[in-house]
UniProtKB/TrEMBL annotation:
Lineage, opening ranks: Bacteria, Bacillati, Actinomycetota, Actinomycetes, Bifidobacteriales
An individual GO BP term: proteasomal protein catabolic process
Gene Ontology cellular-component annotations: proteasome complex
Record bears the keyword Ligase: yes
Annotated protein name in UniProt: Proteasome accessory factor A
Length: 515
């Protein structure tokens, strides 16, 4: 287990009091999605790097860089390994974050099809660009979908490892994207590629949660929880539930830390998180694969306190104090969150009025009940890995003896946002649930969320592009490269992600642009 190191303030009285007065259970969400690219049907060599650069040609023409920010507040860039990446603007609720992620998906599709039109002139009419919103390519290389959650600084990394990581490991049963591996279908795309539980590394070794301390906010108050364990979802429902349930679990952990009491989740800690992560991913039949606990007796006491039985007891066997399966772990989290909402539900709802918490809890418990009874068919319109499993089974029934390569092709086609047909066909036939409308996706492509600092960033980027002015951004800083009368570059700092009102420095920037 790597040594955990906290930096900054881990819980001063000022931070606790100030946070409760200001934002309570409010949060900032963000999703970073790396896409895989490939090309088929070309008459001459055309590798991923060529495709990626063709995609970014109009971006470079406009922004003079492959790393830029957009008028909707998002970041678009070309990552290491020729992976186009889209990082959503800051969102204050999971629905907005989901819409922003889908806006990135549509933008990437447009870039890919534009590149395809140009490459077909150079490489032949049959040139087809494939853009995969998944996490593993055909050669076995893994790339990520990273979730970001603004978390209060007084929550320690030790709390994250003990109380949150088991949830992240077991939530894959309803949020996994599914992947055909050498052993057949597995639930999670990422599980086989993650080496450690918590670490500051990102490429040398892949942790489930990255601890690099870049809060993009006041470091005395916040940390940015950078979650690497999750899959890239095509299912909108899975994407929403992944964010919403994680938010609710974080609310429990934060309030416990704020009050200096037990969250009811500490005993969920696992002895070997990496092994548990892989075990959950490979157990498609939910056969009760045990996850070894670090504090078995403590977990048994926690279950008793929340009125639960573990999976062995539910099946008529003796309660198991040494281990719990993924369903049992998720049921415990759901029970703890339900108890928490009895006391703090009003405050949680007030902090995030767009999120229907009752619906989230119903869907969460319904998914666990369906999985527990083996009613997978009821979830195939919501859960990516189950939708894939259903597609594979239908293909086997229609074409017995179908070669493995055809299934691998279908697996990739499901994630191809440029030229894939499998997922879009499910949506057209009402076999996949959608939440965000096409018009809402278009709105998210054009406009930044208006309830975070992204609104200020987006407005400046939009005006700078109109004026053809040189500008640069990061998440907390805006800079105009044009010189004022004083001969200096002008900049504004946006340290508070919740702030939407412009300060004097920001007004000066916009004034230089004629706004």
């Amino acid at each position: 287990m790597p040594q955990l190191r906290d930096s900054g303030n881990t819980g001063s009285a000022f931070s606790l009091r100030d946070d409760e007065k200001q934002h309570g259970f409010a949060r900032i969400f963000g999703i970073e999605t790396e896409y895989g690219v490939s090309v088929t049907g070309s008459n001459k060599p055309c590798d991923a790097a060529t495709v990626a650069m063709a995609m970014f040609r109009p971006v470079v023409s406009r922004s003079r860089s492959t790393n830029t920010y957009l008028s909707n507040g998002a970041r678009l860039y070309l990552d290491v390994g020729s992976h186009p990446e889209y990082a959503t603007a800051e969102a204050r609720d999971p629905l907005t974050a989901l819409a922003q992620d889908l806006a990135g998906e549509r933008l990437m599709r447009q870039l890919a099809l534009d590149a395809q039109r140009r490459l077909s002139l150079e490489c032949g009419e049959g040139t087809t660009v494939h853009l995969f919103k998944n996490n593993v390519d055909s050669a076995g290389h893994s790339f990520g979908c990273h979730e970001n959650y603004l978390v209060r600084r007084f929550v320690s990394l030790h709390d994250v490892e003990r109380a949150l990581l088991p949830f992240l490991i077991t939530r894959q049963i309803f949020s996994g994207a599914g992947r055909l591996s050498e052993r057949g279908l597995v639930i999670s795309q990422r599980a086989d590629y993650l080496d450690e539980s918590i670490s500051s590394a990102t490429t040398r070794e892949r942790p489930m949660v990255n601890t690099r301390d870049e809060p993009h906010a006041d470091p005395e108050r916040y940390r940015r929880l950078h979650v690497i364990i999750g899959d890239s979802n095509r299912s909108q429902h899975a994407g929403l539930m992944k964010l919403a349930t994680t938010h609710l679990v974080l609310c429990v952990i934060e309030q416990a830390a704020r009050r200096g009491v037990s969250s009811g989740l500490e005993a969920c800690a696992l002895k070997d998180p990496s092994s548990a992560n892989r075990a959950v991913s490979r157990d498609l039949q939910f056969s009760g694969t045990p996850l070894e606990l670090a504090d078995a007796q403590g977990f048994a006491k926690a279950q008793a306190e929340y009125g639960e039985m573990n999976s062995a007891a539910a099946g008529g066997g003796k309660p198991c104090a040494q281990a719990v399966d993924a369903l049992g772990m998720q049921r415990h989290y759901a029970a703890v969150v339900a108890r928490f909402l009895e006391d703090y539900g009003t405050q949680v709802r007030e902090a995030m009025p767009r999120l229907d918490i009752e619906a989230v809890m119903r869907e969460w418990n319904d998914a666990l009940d369906r999985l527990g009874t083996g009613d997978f068919a009821a979830l195939e319109n919501r859960v990516d890995w189950i939708a894939k499993q259903s597609l594979f089974e239908a293909l086997r029934r229609r074409h017995p003896g179908m070669p493995a390569a055809r299934f691998a092709q279908l697996d990739l086609d499901y994630h191809d946002v440029a030229n894939g047909t499998a997922y879009d066909s499910l949506v057209r036939h009402g076999a996949m649930r959608t939440i965000i409308t096409p018009s809402q996706v278009h709105e998210a492509m054009v406009h930044a969320p208006q309830d975070t600092r992204a609104a200020l960033r987006g407005a400046l980027v939009s005006k700078a592009l109109q004026c053809d002015a040189r500008f640069s951004c990061d998440w907390t800083r805006l800079t105009l490269g044009t010189s004022g009368q004083d001969g200096e570059r002008a900049e504004a700092v946006l340290i508070d992600p919740f702030e939407t009102q412009p300060g004097d420095d920001y007004r000066r920037l916009m004034s230089r642009l004629g706004a």
